[in-house]
Design a protein that fits this description.
- This protein is about 35% helix and about 30% strand.
- By secondary structure, the protein is α/β, with parallel strands linked by helices.
- It has two domains: about 120 residues, Response regulator (Rossmann fold); about 110 residues, Beta Barrel (OB fold (Dihydrolipoamide Acetyltransferase, E2P)), CATH 2.40.50.1020.
- The strands form four sheets. A five-stranded parallel sheet has the order 2-1-3-4-5, with helices on both faces. Strands 10-9-8-12-11 form a five-stranded antiparallel sheet.
- Strand 6 and strand 7 form a beta hairpin.
Length: about 280
């Protein structure tokens, strides 16, 4: 029995609310940030801290998406708190401080924004909006990475299971944040588009990162035929050959799609016609 790779981390839906912490040694400053954040239903406040050490422990424990972080605090400052965190696990950060001399360093550690006290509601709102966009971008990147890992896992095991039985009757691909299990019979035609293959299925298009040669080797030659260096069609979708120009022909599909038949692939069509007699 052939061993399979371990199943990747399961996909998780993006959280509805952005988990946020507030870090400042002044209770009044924390309260001010909390009041502004509580106006936004997309934000969930999961903790507060008054020192850098508390902030590091809070981030490790709660794994927030976003932190409003003071720079100067007793014991260790905001930068030192971040230094104790694995960069891959660090939240998006908005620095909140009364000192502007730290701004350059803040952006060197990829802070989303730098709020200088005192700030008004509009300036805080702009920083929050920028932070929300960054958090959603990170969540999308994480989901796409996990989706790709899951697709690779499924594809390897699908190919291993189908290997002994010849060409696969299913194509697995990622499209618009979902994994599709396409039956070969559902595919109308396929075209190369840069580093991707575009599958045309009942009026919809799905992209898959693959080469034409590798894909052609995986498809059943009794069902699919290559008519051009960048085009493969489902034989069942062929309707007719139509003269084009200079002795060339166009392939017309059942839905009226017109595709170019390259001269180098005439022999394949001829073989197909002979088989159908």
């Amino acid at each position: 029995m052939k061993a399979t790779a371990p199943l990747p981390v399961p996909l998780k839906a993006n959280p509805v609310r952005i988990r946020t912490i507030i870090v400042d040694d002044e209770p009044a400053a924390r309260r001010g940030v909390r009041l502004l954040l509580e106006r936004d239903s997309a934000v969930e406040i999961v903790g507060e801290a008054a020192t850098g050490a508390e902030a590091a422990a809070l981030i490790q424990r709660e794994k927030p998406d976003l932190a409003f972080l003071d720079v100067q605090m007793p014991g260790s400052d905001g930068f030192e708190a971040l230094g104790k965190i694995d960069p891959l696990a660090a939240p998006a950060v908005v620095f909140v401080t009364a000192y502007d001399e730290h701004a350059l360093r803040a952006f060197e550690v990829n802070a989303v924004d730098y709020l200088l006290k005192p700030y008004d509601d509009a300036r805080f709102g702009a920083a929050l909006q920028r932070a929300k966009l960054e958090v959603r971008r990170r969540q999308t990147d994480t989901t796409n990475t996990r989706l790709t890992q899951l697709l690779d896992y499924l594809q390897k095991n699908h190919e291993a299971a189908a290997g002994a039985d010849g060409p696969s009757d299913r194509i697995l691909l990622k499209s618009s944040g979902e994994i599709f299990f396409l039956k070969a019979a559902e595919i109308d035609w396929i075209e190369a588009e840069g580093d991707y293959m575009k599958f045309h299925v009942a009026g919809r298009a799905h992209l898959m990162r693959e080469t034409m040669a590798r894909l052609e080797a995986r498809l059943d030659p009794k069902r699919f035929i290559r008519i051009h260096r960048s085009t493969i069609v489902n034989i069942d979708r062929l309707r007719k050959l139509s003269p084009s120009f200079a002795g060339e022909y166009a392939v017309i599909l059942q839905d009226g799609t017109k595709l170019k038949l390259s001269r180098g692939y005439h022999e394949r069509i001829a073989t197909l016609l002979q088989r159908s007699r």
